[in-house]
Amino acid sequence: MALPVADARIRRYRWDVKYEYKSPDCVKKLVITINGQSPGPTIRAQQGETIIVELTNNLLTENVAIHWHGIRQKGTPWFDGTEGVTQCPIVPGTTFKYQFVVDRSGTYLYHAHYGMQREAGLYGSIHVSLPDGEKEPFTYDYDRNIILTDWYHKSTYEHAVGLDSIPFQWVGEPDSLLIHGKGRFNCSKLTTASLDAGICNATNPVCSNYTLTVVSGKTYRLRISSLTALSALSFQIEDHNMTIVEADGFFVEPVVVQNLFIYSGETYSVLIKADQEPSRNYWATTSIVSRDSSTPPGLAVFNYYPNHPRRSPPTDPPTGPAWDDVAPRKAQSNALRARHGFFHPPPPLHDRMIVFLNTQNLVKGRTRWSVNNVSFTLPDTPYLIALKENLTDTFDQTPPPDGYDFLNYDIYKQQDNQNGTSRNGIYRLDFNSTVDIILQNANSMQRNKSETHPWHLHGHDFWVLGYGDGKFDMYNDPKKYNLVDPVLKNTVPVHPYGWTALRFQADNPGVWLFHCHIESHFFMGMGVVFEEGIEQVGKLPSSIMGCGETLGRHSP
Ligand SMILES: O=C1O[C@H]([C@@H](O)CO)C(O)=C1O
């Protein structure tokens, strides 16, 4: 008997989420795994299919929630997985069922969205293939996938407590860079006591370099994503060029690069031809840019079959670009264009423009990040539930400001008054309106320092209309927007002392977080929330309830 059609279009996963001791970079540490793995299993589906993930929280003493990064959750805003925004956390010992449609092909991610759990290893990839009969506008022989991360030996708790302490204790630079969950920490940097305890074991085979095996003459589509906690990265493969063809799920005009700059939350596909001398292996490396970091590069082996995958390349690993050379990073941002034949042109005009000044502030003595001097805090009751069930006393009803003091604020200076406030108000957007967002970077609380922030929007893609230096000029800069072939993305950097202009349509009923994807920066308040079309949101599943004011107010 043939299966009912509906069943054939469903992909089911059962995930056991727990802490396990692992040694991703040779140093033994508690890692959050899914079915024993970090990175977790790749979700593979075809456009239009339904994904069901039944997740059991076996973390014993910790809540969890999983965000499906890049999936818009049309019709299922309650399954966006953003704790405090779209759902209550999943408590230990319980099973939560996520169910949503992957409505567009491309490369996406999933990761924890509770506390700072992402950096403990709870993440993976989602690959959505095109519908039958449709083809990518490029060809390749094999499809491969790597996720780049940075890695700390301290626990997420130590980080969170330090960030929330007075005096502030910054998380510092990562201990290692991982390529698809693998790295090699230099054990001689640890004290003998930790070596004796077997904490760092460089001969442990689980912490060998990641290997990417290729056959000479073949072309590889390499899907490269970053889910770093902090770092902006450059990725390069010795002696091999890469052609960028996809960014955040959309096809782009091919751009040939020697190194790919990638920010936390971004996904790319690059084409690589194995066209070098095949009798040896080559290094693939990641290195930190945009911060003056002491973290050594992450290494992987680009292995030409049939050379032994563990055979070290005969050369020194490529070092990558200088961390403070911003020009090539801006050049890559500006070079990306929507692929011809795959344009989704933006609406020519906007209905509302919101300027987000990114600053570091002090709030009641704590170091925080803010948008227009408001540092974000999550309410006890998730916004989606609060709005749908009219629990309006659960968060600040005054919306945060649409801009800052353009005339008087000097973005190049440390501010005389560094104080800001913490609030949990939200931006309410008119349904179907076209919204322009200007991310305006500024000096941090340290002199002559402006950081790079990768901003990620939930529930939408946005057109990237342009990037610029200095203070955004509301009258002249919009004249330079690319309204012809801007890329659609869900994550975008704002470069130091610069601005980035985005446009999106508020056409997805729900409540959506927009935040810096640096895990500690969001923890420190660098985010905002948008509501649109709440009245069109269907009945909320009772599984997302169970915290704050939702307790006892909702019938199952
Ligand atoms: O949020 C941050 O705090 C530190 C620094 O600004 C203060 O120590 C840093 O580099 C960040 O990105």
Automatic annotation (TrEMBL):
Top-level enzyme category = oxidoreductase
Plastocyanin-like domain mapped to chain residues: 17-129, 146-305, 414-533
Enzyme Commission numbers on file: 1.10.3.3
InterPro entries tied to this protein: Cu-oxidase-like_N, Cu-oxidase_2nd, Cu-oxidase_C, Cu-oxidase_fam, Cu_oxidase_CS, Cu_oxidase_Cu_BS, Cupredoxin, CuRO_3_AAO
GO molecular function per UniProt:
copper ion binding; L-ascorbate oxidase activity
This protein's major location comes to secreted
Where is the region Disordered?
307-330
Q: Which residues form the signal peptide?
A: none
**Subcellular localization, per the record?**
Secreted
Q: Which GO terms describe its cellular component?
A: extracellular region
Matching Pfam families: Cu-oxidase, Cu-oxidase_2, Cu-oxidase_3
Cofactor(s) this protein cannot do without? Cu cation
Q: Which UniProt keywords apply?
A: Copper, Disulfide bond, Glycoprotein, Metal-binding, Oxidoreductase, Repeat, Secreted
| Catalytic activity field | 4 L-ascorbate + O2 = 4 monodehydro-L-ascorbate radical + 2 H2O
Gene3D superfamilies referenced in this protein's UniProt entry, alphabetically: Cupredoxins - blue copper proteins
Q: From the record, what ranges are coiled-coil?
A: none
Subunit structure, interactors included: Dimer.
Family, similarity comment = Belongs to the multicopper oxidase family.
Q: What is this protein called?
A: L-ascorbate oxidase
Supply the source organism for this entry. Answer: Rubroshorea leprosula
